Amino acid sequence: MNNTISDVVVKTMDGKDKKLGEYIGKVLLIVNVASYCGYTPQYVGLEKLYQNYKQAGLRILGFPCNDFGEQEPGSNEEIVDFCTRNYGVTFELFDKLHAKGEEQHPLYARLTTSIEPKGPIAWNFEKFLINQHGEVVARFKSSVKPNSPELISAIERELAQ
After folding, report:
1. Whether 29 contacts 20, CB under 8 Å
2. CA distance 95 to 64
3. Where do the catalytic residues lie (predicted)?
4. Do 129 and 27 form a contact (C-beta atoms < 8 A)?
5. d(CA 140, CA 105)
6. Maximum CA pair distance of the chain?
7. Helix, strand or coil for residue 60?
8. In the annotation, is 37 catalytic?
9. Which of 28, 42, 124, 152 is placed for a possible disulfide with 37 were both Cys, Cβ 3.0 to 4.6 Å?
10. Cα–Cα distance measured from residue 26 to residue 159, given in angstroms and rounded to the nearest whole number
């Protein structure tokens, strides 16, 4: 089974294709984000994680998703404005995609079958940790905060490789 994401192509906020293989050599934290969710304040912690570890090679990739309670209804421009204005987000945000269902993006098809617990995304702000080789190495539920010891230790472990 292929548990790497390097061959997956996503769209940037301005509609350009980007192959995730461009991030080889970096540790990635991939998060399905939403502007009107109870977990939306996690943007603060995600940005802090990014600021603390970007020099070491961490990249946080936010993928807006409207699949859960229609909590991300905005356009790409509205999403970027909201995240920047309210949370000072500087990590990369991508084009809105589907994390589940018939229109599930290939990225989430790969993420949800590559690591235990396998299965569909349960809600917004679920997190996947990708090592420097593009392999999915950990999955964290929405309730795991960006400053949680389990997430930080997993990130630090991968950055030390």
Report:
1. no
2. 7
3. 37
4. yes
5. 19
6. 41
7. strand
8. yes
9. 124
10. 8
Q: Can you count the helices (H) and strands (E) in the chain?
A: 4, 7
Determine the average pLDDT of the residues in 70-76: 95
Task: Measure CA 33 to chain center.
Answer: 7
- The span from the CA of 62 to the CA of 146, in Å, is 13
Place of tokens 């769209």: 11
- Cα 55 from Cα 46, distance rounded (Å): 15
Kindly report, residue by residue over 35-60, the tens digit of the pLDDT: 999 999 999 999 999 999 999 999 99
DSSP summary character for residue 19: E
Contact 146, 42 (CB under 8 A): yes
Average pLDDT of the residues of the chain: 96
Q: Which of 5, 37, 49, 151 is catalytic?
A: 37
